[in-house]
Specification:
The complex is a heterodimer of chains A (333) and B (526). Chain A has 333 residues and is mostly helical. Chain A contains 14 helices and no strands. In chain A, helix 5 packs antiparallel against helix 6. Chain B has 526 residues and is α+β, with helices and mostly antiparallel strands. Chain B contains 15 helices and 19 strands. In chain B, a hairpin with a 3-residue loop joins strand 8 and strand 9. In chain B, helix 14 runs antiparallel to helix 15. Chain B is globular and about 70 Å long. Classes of the chains: A mainly alpha (333), B alpha+beta (526). Chains A and B meet through helix 2, helix 3, helix 5, helix 7 and helix 9 of A and helix 1, strand 10, helix 7, helix 12 and helix 13 of B.
């Protein structure tokens, strides 16, 4: 088992090195000149060359790559061309914002999918109408949903704010976690907590709706099977109410497939987060990524690639390890 | 049974909605439309005790808000609200007027400037302005070697004559020097108290997200990705602004900005609203569009480093087929003026644009024309140009490109597209700040790094000419030369377009301070 874990870790390092190498190759192919961008358009050629030398861009590509990997080993992700500060500092600010949004979206997704799956599993005309509504909701791309929700829920009826993590009159605490909701609770500031909740609600809803509808439909299918099963019939015969049958036997036994789909949908939410963060001016990793790409800020792109690559590879590695730990038959001989 | 369950579900749903409503308590939105008279100047409106001006940026300023290294456009309204330099431009003009320097004298040979400083100026942290402080600030700009440091490259010596007099001696005459001091990127004076409190790296880290200037507003906080918060400086030496506070939110999507403006959560958008939407905005009467001529010069550059535009005849034939006035009018309407001078209109240089004579279009093969990918109106402009070019027999394909790509072209122009549309702006209103970067061989805005020894010679002669008439003539000669070469084609001067709440008044604008109305002069009509 230990050898298996070490092998996975070694694989992780290899994958990250390949990821960074790919970013470097792309950087060399795409026309851009960060030295001129930083030095300024009216800088003298000598000034531009000085900046180019400081950035190491006058070295060969393999030398630049080696230098970058060396800095990476010390936790240095280089400096962003756009923000002119360490990429690590930028990510330290952006990642908690995205995690907060993702967490709230996942929570909303769970609530919506449970409600949708249970309600549509119940017989009646209402469940049919609800199923139709869910299909419509699942069909709207998150970008459209974000813009439509801003138009109606913010602009027309004013139920939600339109941008940012807190209102202009709210001063959010400066840490320690970077999450407005958590930090306001830690600082015992309920007003900031409620304002933060109010601001995260709409972007989280836009991220959650599509995946929630998919999970709800899966839950519904599983519920229909479990509610028609022999043990459910036996439970009814023993005098349990329908609610008790649903909760004790139906939902608990039907959660397997929805949970699996739910895990995958979190990844789907991550893919959509850039669009939602841009529309709602949410200063998270998605917005940082969008700007880095449009500015051809390759140090930032490399840093983002590394962070998301690490998260993805570690998550997969943990799943592999958990599977092997749970089922000895999967262990390599 | 099922109805009982449904009832429980409904109660749970209502409870969730009630929680959302509780979280929404306290938020208020004024959705009532306002019809106000916006003609009253800000000076007639008494300063407010607590009114907040809300503005939007599309991105954080690159590199933060250190005035000694700041060289972006987004963020300029913070810099100009918080910091001041020795000089500035008068509104709607290219006239330089005093700011922290009350007056100045220039030696006959143009190499020595003696500045008399304003007395009684206090910085936000209590520091006091004097000649040593100015000298230290300018030296800081030189030492940090940021983008705008080139403006002080000719400074040979700075001498504190007395506490309110600073003498600056240049290595050589530089007719653009005063305009650099008035430029929005020009050297700004920072507080000595802050410099002393943050000595490491000359305070570069601290000044990225903090400020200590002498301007009408002080920076209370800057949270990257969120907002800038400024408040009125009680001890400002000049006119007291109307607004007590300013909040500039970072909202990357212009559509979101517009929704916020329509909902009353924003007061001002300074750029980025497509021209096609401006008509809708003014039609419903809820908002106002205020626009001014600006030094935003769009131009087309042709790649002279490779075929077909290494041949001047091909360039002239191509330029002759460009229907620039038609494309500009169709795209921008009243919000741009077709270029009539080789120089941006604000510079007032008499260097008329003359188009080559139209003739048969040679077969130049497939040509690629790029436009700034972040500017939807520029894309429309190139589409109109494409139509006229294709009608003349040229095969032109369009594609978007970034500013960074423009900077990269100079190192390998033979690999670059044949035609490049850009929207650069000069650093100041002096013609040298356009001619040198745009056309000199080593100019930073010379997209294809087209070598031109004639321009190199003429532009430096003009910048060092003692007689203004001689300088004007030299700049005109450069313009005539460019007409012949047909490699750099002026298209138009874009207006700065501000979309604002209907009750916002007191707009003031300097043409070379692009995207930047004077926030200290704005007021809300009572």
């Amino acid at each position: 088992m230990t050898r298996f874990v070490l092998a996975r870790l070694a694989g992780l390092v290899g994958v990250l090195v390949v990821l960074v190498a790919v970013v470097f190759v792309i950087q060399s192919v795409v026309p851009n000149d960060p030295a001129r961008t930083i030095a300024g358009r009216s800088a003298s050629p000598a000034a531009v060359e000085r900046v180019r030398h400081e950035l190491g861009l006058d070295q060969s590509l393999p030398a630049q790559f080696g230098h970058y990997v060396g800095r990476l080993a010390q936790g240095d992700l280089a400096d962003s061309v756009s923000t002119r500060r360490p990429v690590a500092d930028d990510l330290r600010e952006a990642v908690p914002a995205s995690l907060e949004l993702l967490f709230c979206a996942a929570l909303l997704c769970m609530l919506l999918s449970l409600a949708g799956g249970i309600l549509t599993a119940l017989p009646g005309a209402r469940s049919g109408a609800l199923r139709g509504g869910m299909i419509v909701a699942a069909s709207i791309p998150p970008f459209c949903l974000a813009v439509l929700s801003l138009l109606f829920l913010y602009d027309r009826v004013g139920w939600f704010p339109g941008a940012g993590r807190v209102g202009p009159d709210t001063v959010a605490p400066d840490g320690p976690t970077g999450s407005v909701l958590l930090d306001s609770l830690l600082h015992a500031d309920p007003a900031v907590f409620l304002d933060g909740l109010h601001h995260v609600a709409l972007p989280a809803l836009c991220l959650a709706v599509g995946p929630a509808m998919l999970i709800a439909r899966t839950l519904r299918s599983a519920l229909l099977v479990t509610l028609a099963s022999d043990y459910a019939r036996t439970a009814r015969a023993k005098g349990l109410t329908e609610t008790q049958v649903l909760v004790r036997h139906g939902v608990r036994n039907a959660l397997g497939a929805p949970l699996t789909i739910g895990g995958l949908q979190v990844g789907a939410m991550l893919a959509q987060i850039a669009v939602v963060e841009t529309v709602f001016a949410w200063p998270g990793l998605g917005q940082y990524t969008t700007r880095a790409i449009s500015a051809q800020d390759f140090p930032a792109i490399a840093g983002i690639t590394l962070v998301t690559g690490v998260v993805f590879v570690i998550a997969n590695a943990l799943v592999d390890v958990a599977q092997v730990a749970a089922d000895p038959r999967l262990r390599p001989n | 049974m099922h109805q009982h369950l449904l009832r429980r579900m409904l109660i749970a749903a209502l409870a969730i909605v009630a929680c959302a409503a509780l979280a929404a308590c306290g938020s208020s939105k004024d959705s009532a439309s306002k019809t106000t008279d916006t003609s009253a100047p800000a000076a007639d409106v008494a300063p407010s005790a607590d009114d907040t001006l809300r503005v939007a940026y599309t991105a954080d300023p690159a590199g933060g808000v250190d005035p000694s290294t700041f060289y972006d456009i987004e963020g300029q309204s913070v810099i100009l609200s918080v910091y001041e330099g020795l000089a500035t431009y008068a509104p709607d003009s290219s006239e330089i007027e005093p700011l922290l320097a009350e007056s100045w004298e220039t030696s006959a040979d143009g190499t020595t400037y003696t500045f008399k400083l304003r007395d009684g100026v206090t910085f936000h942290d209590g520091g006091k302005l004097d000649a040593q402080v100015v000298k230290d600030s300018l030296q800081r700009s030189i030492d940090l070697e940021g983008g705008p440091s080139y403006m002080l490259a000719d400074v040979a010596k700075m001498t504190v004559v007395d506490p309110l007099t600073l003498k600056i001696e240049l290595k050589q005459r530089n007719n653009a020097f005063l305009s650099y001091l008035a430029s929005m990127y020009g050297p700004k004076i920072v507080s000595p108290v802050a410099l002393k409190a943050h000595p490491g790296k000359k305070g570069a880290d601290w000044f990225q997200t903090n400020a200590a200037g002498s301007g009408p507003f002080q920076l209370d906080s800057y949270k990257r990705g969120r907002d800038f918060r400024m408040s009125r400086f009680a001890d400002y030496w000049g006119d007291e602004p109307y607004f007590a506070k300013i909040v500039i939110s970072i909202i990357p999507d212009v559509s979101s900005q517009r929704l916020q403006l329509q909902s009353g959560d924003l007061d001002l958008i300074t750029h980025g609203v497509p021209v096609a939407e401006l008509e809708t905005i003014t039609r419903d009467g809820q908002l106002q569009v205020v626009h001014y001529p600006a030094a935003l010069r769009q131009r087309v550059s042709l790649n002279t480093s490779k075929a077909p535009f290494d041949d001047i005849k091909n360039r002239q034939a191509f330029v002759a087929a460009l229907d620039i006035p038609g494309a500009v009018t169709a795209t921008y309407g009243d919000y741009a003026k077709p270029a009539t001078s080789q120089y941006p209109g604000v510079m007032g240089v008499d260097a008329p644009v003359t188009a080559p004579e139209a003739g048969d279009a040679p077969d130049l093969g497939k040509l690629t024309m790029t436009y700034p990918s972040s500017e939807p109106d520029s894309k429309r402009l190139t589409e109109f140009m494409q139509q006229s070019l294709q009608a003349a027999g040229f095969d032109v394909t369009l594609r978007g490109a970034t500013v960074n790509e423009a900077f990269a072209i100079a190192s390998a122009p033979e690999k670059a597209p044949e035609v490049w549309l850009g929207t650069p702006n000069p650093d100041s209103a002096d013609p040298y700040t356009w001619a040198q970067p745009a056309w000199a061989s080593a100019g930073g805005l010379n997209v294809y790094a087209t070598p031109d020894k004639k321009v190199d010679t003429l532009v430096e002669q003009a910048n060092q000419a003692e007689d203004p008439a001689e300088a004007a003539d030299l700049y005109a000669q450069i313009g005539a030369h460019l007409n012949e070469q047909a490699a750099s084609v002026p298209v138009d001067d874009l207006d700065d377009v501000f979309v604002a709440a209907k009750d916002l008044t007191g707009f003031q604008h300097v043409p070379v301070y692009v995207w930047t109305p004077n926030l200290a002069r704005l007021a809300r009509q009572p």
